[in-house]
Amino acid sequence: MADAVAGRDKCGEPRLVSLPLSRIRVIMKSSPEVSSINQEALVLTTKATELFVQYLATYSYRHGSGKERKALTYSDLSNTAEESETFQFLADILPKKILASKYLKMLKEKRDEDEEENDSDDGSNGDEAES
Length: 131
Known about the structure:
DNA binding; Chromatin accessibility complex protein 1; transferase; Histone-fold; Histone, subunit A; nucleotidyltransferase
């Protein structure tokens, strides 16, 4: 494991990528459109993934509160996903953490709203049938 962190493979040769190629291959093959994966495409996809993760982490660190603590936190990442237009597509994957009690309250309010909408829809349908 220490070799991977240092950027060396088991033989001591420098590695092109740090992420495990076998895991990236499994993720790529999980798509039904993919039947086979060229080794070069696998390495390029892995390197692009590493660069993206590095950019996301650096951006989140610079624009987050972690700079004061010299640490990158989950909240820094979720704030970046929510506030940055570039990373907006990650908002569902990196949601802001909320307390369970707040979540349950939000669910209850949503159910109440849905019930009110259903009640008003039922009432208007009945009026149209009488006309």
